[in-house]
Every structure is written in structure tokens, then in C-alpha cells.
């Protein structure tokens, strides 16, 4: 994707959350820098110089929160910039003072695992006849 389209997508994404796109550079590396109060910052290296997106922060306070996004990026399949940014936003929710949200996929899985088996689920174990 052309870098200017990535910048436009990033600006549009910022309109729906507390982050601002504060810097976009294409010369040395295709890099987008983001910032939100209270001092939450990160940058994204976009494919072109690299094969996949890469997220990082110069702030040691922010780095541990980026692990979820880094794991997501390195998982199978190509990711879009918006998918990566949304995962970063989810990771930073506690630092931004926003309530933590669970991943919907996990919630559905978790709901299926807990509780009594429904009538369409066969009980495991020895059947008595």
C-alpha cells in the first residue's frame, strides 16, 4: 500500500480514539508516530522496508503494554494497519484510563467452556446402561 494511504488510514483511525498521529516519515523508514495523554506513545513501522508491521515505543512505561500487539502481528496471516492500530489501542486501554475490554472471541470460547453441557453436548466419560 502506498504510504500516503497508510497515513490517511492512520488519521482516520485517530478520529475515533485519544491518539494523534504526530509524525509520518517515509524517507528512511515508513514510520508513523502516535501520542495520547497522559504520555502514551508508540510508533508503527509499515511494510515496505520490513515484511510486516512492527510496533515499538521509546517509553519504557509503554513497552510492556505493546506485547499483545506484537504477538498479534507475529501470528499467522497478513495484518492491515487498522487491525494493528486497534490491537495497540486495546493494549493501551489501562494506560489511557479506559476500562479493560475482553476479546470477543475469547469471551465466546470462555462461555462455551464454562457451565453445564447443553442437551446437544454429549457427556464425556463412561456411559452407564
From TrEMBL:
<dbReference type="Pfam" id="PF15167">
    <property type="entry name" value="DUF4581"/>
</dbReference>
<comment type="similarity">
    <text>Belongs to the MTURN family.</text>
</comment>
<dbReference type="InterPro" id="IPR027892">
    <property type="entry name" value="Maturin"/>
</dbReference>
<dbReference type="GO" id="GO:0045654">
    <property type="term" value="P:positive regulation of megakaryocyte differentiation"/>
</dbReference>
<keyword id="KW-0963">Cytoplasm</keyword>
<protein>
    <recommendedName>
        <fullName>Maturin</fullName>
    </recommendedName>
</protein>
<dbReference type="GO" id="GO:0005737">
    <property type="term" value="C:cytoplasm"/>
</dbReference>
<keyword id="KW-0217">Developmental protein</keyword>
<dbReference type="GO" id="GO:0023051">
    <property type="term" value="P:regulation of signaling"/>
</dbReference>
Amino acid at each position: 500500500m502506498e504510504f500516503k494511504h497508510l497515513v490517511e488510514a492512520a488519521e482516520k483511525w485517530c478520529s475515533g480514539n485519544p491518539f494523534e498521529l504526530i509524525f509520518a516519515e517515509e524517507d528512511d523508514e515508513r514510520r508513523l508516530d502516535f501520542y495520547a495523554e497522559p504520555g502514551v506513545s508508540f510508533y508503527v513501522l509499515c511494510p515496505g522496508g520490513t515484511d510486516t508491521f512492527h510496533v515499538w515505543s521509546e517509553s519504557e512505561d509503554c513497552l510492556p503494554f505493546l506485547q499483545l500487539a506484537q504477538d498479534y502481528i507475529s501470528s499467522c496471516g497478513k495484518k492491515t494497519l487498522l487491525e494493528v492500530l486497534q490491537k495497540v489501542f486495546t493494549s493501551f486501554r489501562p494506560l489511557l484510563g479506559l476500562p479493560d475490554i475482553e476479546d470477543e472471541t475469547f469471551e465466546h470460547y470462555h462461555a462455551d467452556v464454562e457451565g453445564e453441557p447443553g442437551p446437544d453436548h454429549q457427556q464425556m466419560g463412561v456411559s452407564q446402561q
